[in-house]
Write a structure and sequence with these properties.
Layout lengths: L1 E5 L4 H12 L3 E9 L18 H4 L2 H5 L3 E5 L18 H15 L5 E3 L6 H14 L2 E3 L7 H10 L3 E7 L6 H4 L4 H15 L10 E7 L6 E14 L6 E13 L8 H6 L9 E3 L21 H5 L3 E5 L5 E8 L9 H18 L7 E8 L5 H11 L11 E6 L10 E8 L5 E3 L18 E4 L2 E4 L5 E2 L4 E2 L4 H17 L9 E9 L4 H26 L8 E7 L8 E8 L10 E2 L24 E6 L3 E8 L1 H7 L19 H21 L7 E9 L6 H19 L11 E5 L1 E3 L9 E8 L8
Parallel strand pairs: 1-2, 1-4, 2-3, 3-10, 4-5, 13-14, 21-22, 27-28
Antiparallel strand pairs: 6-7, 6-9, 8-9, 11-12, 12-15, 13-15, 16-17, 17-18, 18-23, 19-20, 21-23, 22-29, 24-25, 25-26, 26-30, 27-30
């Protein structure tokens, strides 16, 4: 990609550009913001470093690329962490600057910045990039600062200290000194006082005089003044004010003509610096495509749409799908548009909006149309509609048409409050895969961390890693762990549930390697985390493997983790993986408690808080549930799980009986369920409509018998058609798989 590099003069912005080149990008322009008054060294800004701005003008000559500069007219007017367009804010100066760069060099598609740990700066750069249709590159983001400083020095960054403002740093002693000479001292200050060794906390600022980017010349500082801003005895503040400097050519003398040498004309002196003007008080917005609301309720009602909704009041799931595929349009975008509109109308009916959505499952019939699906998706779910953060998302291809459904199927998890906390990093970095657009890496709500589906993407390149499905899974798990660490937890000790989506393209041997890799990775990471964090209690996660036709980017696997991210200050209510109570549940439909009932059940319980379970109804279990069908199909060669409706009715009743038992044994009710999914394979040869009707009848019967469920016009469960599913990657042969997640409502939970 062709990149414009944001430069402040500091080491971080220069090294970020070096990383861009390392990953195959090309720096074609520089952009810099400076004070209106040349005599000022520093502004009161959380966004921009301006100390040393007098020297930055020469970077164009040093690198041989054009420099665009703008004088900062705005100030800090938008004080919240997340940023939205605010006339007169200093961020709008960056917008005007980059908009002009893009106008003059249309081939530019990305922006490089040196953000390491500041969400404040990163979010503002991402906001500007999003509005201009540019990609944010932040290759230093979340990197270990000690290693980063060492790496910068080793790879040729020659930078001097131009500002100090921390205990242990003295303006008279340290200003003008090279960071290479102070590296060990900075690490000592970190040990003594906890400073950021890269200066991310404002402890110091730097000015780069030379680096591998400077192909033409290096900077030499001839004269400077030390200006003391504060003589505080503990942490004095001072800056270096450049008075004179010159360029020292790196070019070989023989490559220049005699005339050029005599006249002092060098190629580095011929690169122009462009000043960008404009008023930051004006609304600096670009045109964006809005949702076409030209069709109304009547149009939505004209489609054969179906809705399901779990019964919990404060956290619940809504699903929407076309029931009859022959009456839907042949266009994915039209199907998705209508489904999203239907969900939006449902949210409005509940007094909610897309801002209340925590997670979205986007199921489509053909992954080749993923880009088209995204085009429609981003017109409904926007940053403006989600003030507290956009929801996390997973996108899966399902065999929708084979079971009589439309081309789009949406499932959303909704909360009736605004207490969610979202991690949404749009910048491409070395940390974890970026989410460029209105979907986030993870959403935390009521101690449950809902993580976006993770592919085996190499974060800095955003390409699938090589090495096959097992390597992809390992990378996906590493990406998941990077996200989990931002919430002070780990997938090895805090995971409740892993859904591992496997592509239909992978072989049996590759499935074996996937399962082995998951087990090995989690065990090794758990040992490391237990040793380093001294944790005594950890969760034992449950795992479900789901075989699907295809995944984004033709990936082999996609990992969807759900974590229990309890705050360290909270009192843990206790982790359990197994039976948590001896309470006796009732018997229904002739099912009495038998030891074999729990053979194919995985559970993860946090007492008094959450209950997660996976029920795998295998062929073997079907023989026990329906003993009359044992051996019935063996002689004619028909697979036993091609079931009659009578047998399927019996299986549905057993599932509900067992779910009820799990809930009651662990002191949960049906009203605590936030989602209830039934995965069924297409080899059942049953339509979605008939299966849905069957389960609805059984639930109604159960509600009538027990009075434990409040039945409404919408079913409380979601049916998901898949190729196969199971608790093992090598034997995804369940007849029906049930995924239950229930959570208690408690007012004293932290977010």
């Amino acid at each position: 990609m062709k990149v414009v590099g944001l430069v402040s003069g500091g080491k971080d912005s220069c090294y970020a550009m070096m990383k861009c080149i390392e990953y195959g990008h090309e720096i074609v322009a520089l952009a810099n913001l400076l004070p209106v008054d040349d005599s000022l060294d520093e502004l009161d800004s959380y966004m921009y470093q301006t100390v040393g701005h007098q020297v930055v003008v020469s970077y164009a000559s040093c690198m041989g690329v054009p420099l665009f500069r703008r004088r900062i007219q705005g100030s800090t007017r938008h004080h919240k962490l997340s940023y939205s367009m605010t006339p007169g804010d200093e961020v709008e100066d960056l917008f005007i600057l980059l908009k002009e760069v893009k106008r003059q060099i249309p081939s530019i598609v990305a922006v490089s910045s040196g953000a390491i740990a500041s969400d404040y700066q990163r979010l503002r750069v991402e906001n500007v990039c999003s509005r201009l249709g540019l990609i944010s590159l932040a290759y230093l983001w979340k990197q270990d600062q000690s290693l980063l400083l060492q790496e910068m020095i080793r790879k040729g960054i020659l930078a001097i200290i131009v500002k100090v403002a921390a205990i242990g740093l003295d303006p008279r002693k340290h200003l003008g000194k090279e960071i290479a000479h102070l590296e060990s001292y900075l690490h000592k200050l970190k040990e003594l006082y906890g400073i950021n060794v890269c200066g991310e906390g404002g402890e110091y600022e730097t000015l780069t005089l030379d680096c591998p980017l400077f192909k033409n010349a290096r900077l030499v500082l001839d004269k400077f003044d030390i200006v003391l801003h504060s003589s505080d005895s503990i942490a004095p503040v001072g800056i270096l004010h450049p008075l004179a400097f010159h360029l020292e050519s790196k070019l070989v003398a023989e490559s220049l003509s005699d005339g050029e040498r005599r006249n002092g004309i060098f190629p580095e002196n011929m690169v122009a610096a462009h000043e960008v003007l404009g008023d930051c008080l004006q609304r600096c917005e670009v045109d964006c495509q809005s949702v076409d609301h030209s069709f109304d309720l009547a149009e939505v009602a004209g489609h054969k749409l179906h809705i399901s909704r779990t019964g919990k009041d404060n956290i619940f799931s809504i699903s929407c799908w076309f029931q009859d595929s022959c009456k839907t349009s042949a266009d994915l975008q039209e199907d998705l548009r209508v489904v999203l509109m239907k969900i939006e109308l449902q949210l409005v009916e509940y007094g909610l909006s897309w801002g209340n959505v925590l997670y979205i499952h986007l199921y489509i019939a053909d992954m080749c149309e993923f880009a088209k699906a995204n085009e429609t998706y981003v017109r409904f779910i926007t940053q403006d509609k989600c003030k507290f953060g956009v929801p996390s998302r997973s996108t899966i291809e399902l065999p929708l048409l084979q079971v009589g459904l439309g081309r789009a199927y949406i499932e959303v998890l909704v909360a009736n409050d605004q207490s969610k906390r979202v991690l949404h990093v749009q910048s491409i970095s070395c940390w974890a895969p970026s989410c460029i657009g209105p979907y986030s890496q993870a959403t935390l709500h009521k101690q449950i961390l809902h993580m976006a589906g993770q592919l085996g993407l190499d974060p800095p390149t955003m390409s699938l890693c090589s090495g096959g499905p097992a390597a992809e899974l390992e990378q996906a798990l590493q990406n998941s762990e990077a996200v989990a660490k931002c919430f002070h937890c780990s997938i090895s000790t805090s995971a409740i549930l892993f859904i591992i989506y496997c592509s239909a393209y992978i072989s049996l041997s590759e499935k074996i390697s996937i399962q082995d890799k998951l087990d090995t990775f989690l065990k090794q990471m758990k040992v490391l985390n237990l040793c380093s964090e001294n944790k005594s209690e950890v969760l034992d996660p449950i795992v479900l493997y789901v075989l699907v036709p295809d995944l984004p980017k033709r990936a082999s696997v996609e990992v969807k983790p759900i974590l229990y991210a309890v705050d360290d200050t909270e009192t843990n209510t206790g982790f359990v993986a197994g039976d948590a109570s001896s309470e006796v549940a009732q018997s229904f439909w002739g099912f009495d408690h038998q030891p074999w009932h729990h053979f194919n059940v995985q559970k993860c319980i946090v007492r008094g808080n959450l209950c997660a379970a996976i029920l795998s109804i295998t062929d073997e279990l079907v023989m026990k549930i329906c003993p009359e069908c044992a051996g019935a199909n063996e002689d004619d060669g028909v697979r036993p799980n091609i079931l009659t409706e009578r047998k399927m009715d019996r299986i549905a009743k057993f599932c509900i009986f067992l779910i009820d038992r799990i809930l009651s044994e662990n002191h949960f009710s049906w009203d605590d369920a936030t989602n209830l999914r039934f995965y069924y394979p297409t080899c059942l040869l049953m339509s979605h409509e008939s299966l849905s009707l069957m389960f609805s009848i059984v639930f109604n019967e159960f509600a009538e018998m027990t009075k434990r469920i409040q039945i409404s016009k919408e079913p409380i469960f979601t049916l998901i058609p898949v190729l196969r599913a199971g608790r093992s990657a090598t034997s995804m042969d369940d007849v029906i798989t049930c995924e239950l997640f229930a959570q208690k409502s408690f007012s004293n939970s932290r977010n």
